[in-house]
Amino acid sequence: MKEDTHTEAEIGQTRRKREAIGIDFDGVIHAYSQGWCTGVIYDIPVAGAQEALTLLSRRFRIVIYSARSYDHPEKGQHGKGQKEDMELWLSRYSIPYDEIHTAPGKPDCEVFIDDKGYRFEGDWVKTRKDIERLSSRKWATGGDS
Ligand SMILES: [Mg+2]
To answer: Residue 144 and residue 26: Cα distance in Å, rounded?
Structure first.
């Protein structure tokens, strides 16, 4: 009989690795300090991003998402997806990931890390007030990522 060579910890680690974390690109990994500008990926990583993703990638699937990653036919020649540019940039800064989500829409993830996220906790009255308050401050940050 073949001996099982996997420890419980290794099996657990494999299971956890299947849990995906969705991470927004602009403003979370790519510093994006000047907003969209000409549309190129021009900035350095956000401080701590490389280290954090290296640690998180040991336990979770890292799914990077961005409107950059897929084509926008409605924008004509300026609507070409930038997945390859994202890959080159992530490689240049040694930022680990499992996948760049390329389909329009939301990837299948347990949690999302996004600079424009709002956590909904089941209370639409509170949510509406929070959103109106944020909007009246012209949102916390600029850009359209
Ligand atoms: Mg963003």
So the answer is: 9
CATH number for the segment(s) 15-136: 3.40.50
Beta bridge partners of 22: 63, 112
What are the boundaries of each domain within the chain? 15-136
pTM to 2 decimal places: 0.82
Taking the centre of ligand 1 as the mean of its atom positions, its distance from the CA of residue 113, in whole angstroms, is 9
- Segment 62-90, tens digit of pLDDT: 999 999 988 888 888 778 889 999 999 99
CA 86 to ligand 1 center in whole angstroms: 14
